[in-house]
Specification:
The complex is a heterodimer of chains A (about 375) and B (about 130).
Chain A (H helix, E strand, L loop, with lengths): L3 E9 L3 H12 L2 E3 L5 E9 L2 H10 L4 E5 L7 H11 L4 E7 L3 H9 L4 E5 L3 H59 L6 H33 L6 E5 H18 L3 E6 L4 E5 H17 L6 E8 L3 E8 L6 H6 L21 H11 L3 E7 L3 E9 L4
Parallel strand pairs in A: 1-3, 1-4, 4-5, 5-6, 8-10
Antiparallel strand pairs in A: 2-3, 7-9, 10-11, 11-13, 12-13
Helix pairs in contact in A: 1-5, 2-3, 5-6, 6-10, 7-8, 8-10
Chain B lengths: L5 E5 L3 H13 L3 E5 L2 H7 L7 E5 L7 H12 L4 E6 L23 E4 L4 H10 L4
The chains are: A alpha/beta (about 375), B alpha/beta (about 130).
């Protein structure tokens, strides 16, 4: 079966009839969980508390049905043993009627449920079903938390790596300056200082991007939604990038018809435009062109920024949508970037129920399109 | 005076490349630099290095390994010094492979930032300073 799980159930009882009954009731029993997962049981048995403990030492079951009154160590003792080892299982106590004290002790020791003797197969199945659901839900939650921790750790590892690279470069230049290596040539001296400053500003950009991203993800950043001119936000970003563009002969065009207003946070719009336009300049060829096109429909605002730059292969485009992903090749080697810009844009777009898409061809250019919905559900 | 020792430096970080280049030149070596494995392999067509300084992770994560391996096969006498930014403290552990099979074709591995003195010390040990 494609979606079947098998749980191991241990029945601990000194009465053979009880063990047989449980086995018979669960042998061909299948439970269907809410998510469609089917659960079946492998039933194993122990006729005493001692035997149960030695079996659990070998391989703990998923569910244990535990009779309390047995010769030798009691069910409660077994429960205590399980508890001390923090085993990942659900224990169901089988108790006689009226032994409320047993029930209370068992609860304290972490029993999940009780089955008062005598019980019917139907009652057994209900109890086992609940224990299974609880167990699987618990395990799923734990797995999700584990995954979250892992992703977070990965993020921090990569971040540390991205910060160490420029630190190492700057440190290396400082050693050269201190030791005077190659410094007889004033051009070399100038270049060493210049490169150090470039790497420092790259580091600063990374830290700012990181702050933007964490603020967006934590929801800490106060959003100030107001009717905002998308064209003005675009113009501001274009002005910011114009010196860099001019230095390389790149022309930035803005194409829009009429005024476009969006209920938006001005800061968020500027982050989007800054990212789109600075990328379009950075990855452009000298004397290239950047076209910022704004379109509006009744439902959405569409921002498309096209460059005439180096472009990307389909494989590179596919890789692009991860955190800290920077396309490494001959032509991007000397371009600085944090690798977080796209993550930030996508995060912001998602706040507007929108998305970011990209089209690209090597040596022809890349177009990033950001869609922002006008009404939020 | 003997000919200058020839050094190949390969790294995709342009600043590291430049610094290594400056240091080796100041140290009296003849250098060639390459920003990636492919360019390095082209250089090796007509250049016999006595020393190679290679970054572990470049365009692909295993470029440094592959280049070191090929270089050692072609020039077994060449001293291969591997440098890397990847260290234990970030959780990106440098793979401590049991090298009995001769997997890593490097004579030494250094963590960035690496000082020229460290490299020189290693080269002295190998009689290549």
């Amino acid at each position: 079966m494609e979606n079947e799980k098998r749980l191991k159930l241990l029945i601990v009882d000194d009465e053979e009839g009880m063990r047989m009954g449980v086995k018979r009731a669960l042998r061909n029993h299948r439970i269907e969980m809410e998510d469609g997962t089917k659960v079946a049981f492998d039933v194993v048995e122990a006729s005493s508390g001692e035997e149960a403990v030695s079996m659990m030492e070998q391989e703990p079951p998923d569910i244990v049905l535990l009779d309390n009154k047995m010769g030798g160590i009691s069910g409660i003792d077994v429960l205590t043993w399980i508890n001390e080892r923090d085993l990942d299982l659900m224990a169901i106590m089988i108790t006689a009627y009226a032994s409320i004290e047993t029930a209370i002790t068992a609860t304290k020791q972490g029993a999940y449920d009780f089955l008062p003797k005598p019980f019917t197969p139907a009652e057994l199945k209900v109890s086992v079903r609940q224990a299974s659901e609880h167990l699987l839900a618990l395990r799923q939650t734990r797995a999700l938390e584990e995954e979250k921790r892992r992703v977070r750790f990965q993020f921090i590892s990569v971040l540390a790596h991205e910060l160490k690279a420029p630190l190492g470069a700057i440190e290396g230049y400082l050693y050269l300056l201190r030791d005077g290596t190659g410094m007889d040539d004033p051009k070399v001296y100038e270049r060493v200082v210049e490169r150090s400053l470039v790497r420092l500003s790259g580091m600063r950009k990374l830290i700012y991007d990181l702050l933007d991203l964490t603020r967006l993800e934590s929801g800490q950043k106060k959003r100030e939604l107001a009717p905002t001119s998308v064209i003005e936000a675009a113009r501001t970003a274009i002005e910011t990038m114009t010196p860099d563009a001019d230095a390389r002969g790149i022309v930035i065009d803005l194409e829009a018809e009429g005024e476009i207003t969006l209920e938006a946070d001005r800061g968020e719009l500027e982050i989007i435009f800054n990212n789109l336009i600075s990328n379009a300049v950075k990855y452009n060829r000298d004397n290239g062109r950047v076209t910022v096109r704004l379109e509006e429909t009744s439902e959405e605002v569409r921002i498309a920024v096209a460059d005439t730059g180096i472009g990307m292969t389909p494989e590179e485009v596919e890789k692009l949508f991860g955190e800290f992903v920077r396309i490494k090749n001959d032509r991007t080697r000397n371009i600085l970037g944090s690798g977080l810009g796209l993550s930030i844009m996508r995060k912001i777009a998602s706040l507007y129920g929108g998305e970011v898409s990209v089209e690209s061809a090597p040596d022809q250019g890349t177009t990033f399109t950001v869609i922002l919905k006008k009404t939020l559900e | 005076m003997a000919d200058k020792r020839q050094v190949l430096i390969v790294d995709d970080d342009p600043d590291f490349l430049e610094q290594m280049d400056m240091m080796f030149q100041a140290g009296g070596y003849a250098t060639r630099t390459a920003p990636g494995r492919k360019q390095a392999e082209e250089i090796l067509q007509g250049f016999t290095p006595e020393i190679a300084v290679i970054d572990l992770m470049m365009e692909n994560d295993d470029d440094g390994f592959i280049l070191a391996y090929r270089l050692k096969r072609k020039f077994p006498e060449c001293a291969v010094l591997m440098v890397t930014n990847v260290t234990g403290e970030t959780g990106l552990e440098f793979p401590r492979i049991d090298d009995s099979a001769g997997w890593i074709s490097a004579d030494a591995v250094f963590s960035k930032p690496v000082r020229f003195e460290q490299l020189q010390e290693q080269l002295r040990k190998m009689g290549k300073a």
